[in-house]
Design goal:
With about 120 residues, the chain is mainly β. Helices cover about 0% and strands about 50% of the residues.
């Protein structure tokens, strides 16, 4: 059973940076597309970024392009978040879908495995 554990959330001022990590265990990352999703209070969960099982390509939501960078390192998927804005405040989740199901990440309902999330608060 694949397990995902997020870390790295916290309180940061607008314009600051955070680095989120998702440690994956139970199977090799080589077989899973990994996505970062977020859910703000009162809003639906939305996709932020995705990295395919091969490590390329990557994709980003328009709202974070140029500010966020997703990467893989052994059993970990990281999300470097720069120039943070108050509207980035949310619980951030990593999720996985097997490469035989899709060639990239799917909408939240289609992802098979989820972490419990880490809270990011951007506020002065």
């Amino acid at each position: 059973q694949l397990q995902l554990v997020e870390s790295g959330g916290g309180l940061v001022q607008p314009g600051g940076s955070l680095r989120l990590s998702c440690v994956v265990s139970g199977a090799s990352l080589d077989y899973y597309n990994i996505g970062w999703f977020r859910q703000a209070p009162g809003k639906q969960r939305e996709g932020v970024s995705c990295i395919s099982s091969s490590g390329s390509p990557t994709s980003y939501a328009d709202s974070v392009k140029g500010r966020f960078t997703i990467s893989r390192d052994n059993d970990m998927v990281n999300l470097q978040m720069n120039s943070l804005k108050p509207e980035d405040t949310a619980v951030y989740y990593c999720a996985a879908v097997h490469l035989t199901v899709a060639t990239s990440c799917l909408p939240p309902d289609g992802m098979n495995y989820w972490g419990k999330g880490t809270l990011v608060t951007v506020s002065s």
